[in-house]
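Reviewer 2 asked us to include a model.

Predict the structure of this chain.
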Amino acid sequence: MDDIEAVERFALVVQRDELERAIIKCAELDADTVRAALNYFICNPVDAGAMFADAFWSAPILTLGNGEALTLVLASIASGSTIRRVESWLERGGLSDRLATARRGLRYEAWVREQAAKSVADNSFFSKNSCAVASISAKGGGEQIDLLIRLRGLLIVAEVKCLLAPVEAMQHYNYLVRLEDAGVQAVRKAQWLESNPNEAAKALQISEEEAKSLRVVPIVVMNQGIGFGIIAGGARVVDFHFLNLFLADNSYIAGAAVRFADGRAEFKKEILYRTEEEAESKFETIMASPPPLKRYVDGAEWKDTKFPLSDGGILSVASCFVGDRMKEDAVALSAQFPDLKAAKFKRA
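Predicted model (structure tokens):
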């Protein structure tokens, strides 16, 4: 490519009127709808805020000249995260993941309360007199508590968040900032509840004296595992899927060794607790070091990639990789069942 004309010949350029006509014909949409759709996917480089946020990753069309020609940004389509792109479109369309401006977060909170309540009620290890799930609505200048879980002597105050999974570095940074904010909220609400035991008593339908005897533990409950186990703003971050496993039963199936010749399988069971008292005493320890993450933590390996520099030196970049623990897990599990030979290990 010796000149700008050569570059333009390789560009993904199409005339806007031709593209509109093709979409109208193929999708059987009216002209106004097609124009609005194209405008929705056009990135405006003058909008610094949009460029700094999602830019071409969610709006992969750029206008050329007076706008009669459009060019497609290939990287946005070929390499970008499809899930993140769709989530960005939903957010721009009004379906934000921000609880203050969207109903999706509120629906998620309600679903979390429903699932947690069902799990506690159905758990044969938990007594109805000492384990319960509730919430507190904001009123009279008080705090709104998304999820309240009593586990014997523990009073777990949960701030529930439904956030998009981060993909790029800036998104990871913003995600951690929002976790920190959620943790601060959880701690503040926990302190408020300690000062207002009558509110906990009403929500859990117990005496105020009994409410005063409970030890308050703030947590942040997430819709995904990113950040699981860390302390953010003074509160432990917990993945709801695992929290619900903990509330529903004392164990879960963590893996399986399968002999494909005859389909026979042996399962690896992870025991979380054996009594209600043990569930109470182990709750914070288990949430700080979740068993499902152990294979990834143990398998983490740092590797150096070396690049030569112009002055003859070497630039070494360290990257973290998760080693495959599958073989070790299969050997360990198969050793418990000597007759299960030629087994392969699968995550459950």
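The CA atoms of residues 2 and 313 lie 34 Å apart. Residues 341-348 have pLDDT under 50 and may be disordered. We have added this to the supplementary material.
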